Amino acid sequence: MQNGTVLKKSDALYIDSKDINLGDEEKIEIISGHFKKIMQTLGLDLSDDSLRDTPDRVAKMYVREIFAGLNPDNKPRVTRFENRYAYHQMLVEKNIPLYSTCEHHFVPIIGKAHIAYIPNGKVIGLSKINRIVRYCSQRPQVQERLTQEIANELKYCLQTENIAVMIDAAHLCVAARGIKDVGTSTVTAAYCGIFLEPSKNAEFRSYLHS
Ligand SMILES: [Zn+2]
Q1: Which of 114, 149, 171, 192 is catalytic?
Q2: In angstroms, what is the span from residue 102 Cα to ligand 1's centroid?
Q3: Is 148 known to be catalytic?
Q4: Which end of the chain is more exposed for a tag (fewer CB within 10 A), N or C?
């Protein structure tokens, strides 16, 4: 198992279950069976053409897509390159699409992540930042922990503490049920290293408005 953000039993979410060691195909089969029971309990007709394959479809989507980040094998392979241009200023990648799932209601969290770092000796391809955001998002999450997991993963990949992560996201559990407050978004941030200094922090946030 690689270092960085890996799933540990000490992270309360993950997992004290025998099922952690199952392969993807076994997980899909088990989840499909359980989801079929949920649908039947709700009174849905599983013999209907349109619904027949839904349990299998949902199980594949859970394991291979929206919860793929629970499997450390899906961690993005990140190659570090020498910082050949000796660029030591702030690099900001903003408006990274973010799709995650609220662990309390299992409905989507949809938003954007804004990331900044100041290169140390190494840099990584820009698209790897998007992949790290996606990997951490593909788990049942609360936004606060997601923000920190992305920051920790970037610290590990970039070998620097000088990382800033901001997430601005809407939670469908707030918009589509309960209070049904459609206009609300939630902002969380992880400022680390030099981004705790007011001037660097202000510089980062100024780019978000430009
Ligand atoms: Zn929720």
Answers
A1: 171
A2: 5
A3: no
A4: C
Ligand 1 centroid to 175 CA: how many Å? 10
pLDDT at 9: 45
At 2, is the secondary structure helix, strand, or coil? Answer: coil
Q: The domain containing residue 96 runs over which residues?
A: 81-208
Structure tokens of 185?
């978004």
68 CA to centre of ligand 1 in angstroms: 19
pLDDT over 90 at 190, yes or no: yes
Are 179 and 150 members of one domain?
yes
Catalytic hit among 105, 148, 161, 203: 105
Spatial distance between the Cα atoms of 57 and 55, rounded to a whole number of angstroms: 5
Provide the CATH number for the domain around residue 141. 3.30.1130.10
Residue 62: CATH number of its domain = 1.10.286.10
Q: How far is the CA of 84 from the centre of ligand 1 (A)?
A: 44
* 100 and 166 part of one domain: yes
Task: State the distance from the centre of ligand 1 to the C-alpha of 176, rounded, in angstroms.
Answer: 10
* 191 shares a domain with 92: yes
User: Residues 171, 61: contact at Cβ < 8 Å?
Assistant: no
pTM listed for this prediction = 0.88
Domain count, the chain: 2
Q: Considering 29, 148, 161, 173, which one is annotated as catalytic?
A: 173
